[in-house]
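Dear Dr. K.,

Following up on our conversation at the group meeting, I've run the structure prediction for Methyltransferase domain-containing protein from Halorutilus salinus. I'm pasting the input sequence below exactly as I used it, so you can double-check it against your construct before we proceed with anything downstream. Let me know if the numbering doesn't match what you have in your notebook.
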Amino acid sequence: MKGREWYQQDETAEEYDEWRFSRGGELVDEGEKEALFDLVGGVEGRDVLEVACGTGRFSVELAESGADVTGVDISKPMLMKGVGKARERGLGVEFLRGDAKRLPFADDTFDLVLGMRFFHLVDEPGAYLSEMARVSKGRVVFDTFNRGSARVVYNRFLPMGSRLYSEEDVQDVVDSAGVELVDRRDDFVLPFGLYRAIPKSLAKGFRGVDDAVRSVGGDRLSSVTYWMVEK
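The predicted structure tokens came back this morning:
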């Protein structure tokens, strides 16, 4: 996995949320959560697993919406951030350290499994998706950064880069995992890095342009797609 050592450092966990989801990055956070809940619908009373949960950004939101949530990540410092968030909100999220390629759960344990901001880092996405599907009773949600979008240019300036996917690439991953695509959402014509680099007040204007482009058929230019698959 790209950046595995960097990702597990204490300093990375301390700075992660502030670096990625402050300023205009708040709009990225809001957009991702909106896309997720739009895809999965109501989660109250459902058993949900978040793979590569990081600082618990999605886990705590799902728990606050009534789900019984388990979060798994390889980074102890990241998990401790998630524990702190859950405690602050009085939520009972279970955070576990583990490898997403060998999840410590029986088959068909969870109603829903998700992996957000994860597939752009892995070298064997089909293997990870297969493992996520194994522990799900049916549905899995993940996202990809897209080839053919503005992300291609932005990607060149990233120290580690990101794995970019075409629709054909995603279909190959889905087929190799033995699951089927059932739904998708496309978003953010402009790459996330632009939003993070500017104040939220200015980013709102760019977000408006972004929405306008997609409303006239610009989904194919979206830099990120959220996919739902099922067994």
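Two things stood out to me. The CA atoms of residues 45 and 186 lie 27 Å apart. The mean pLDDT is 90.

Best regards,
J.T.
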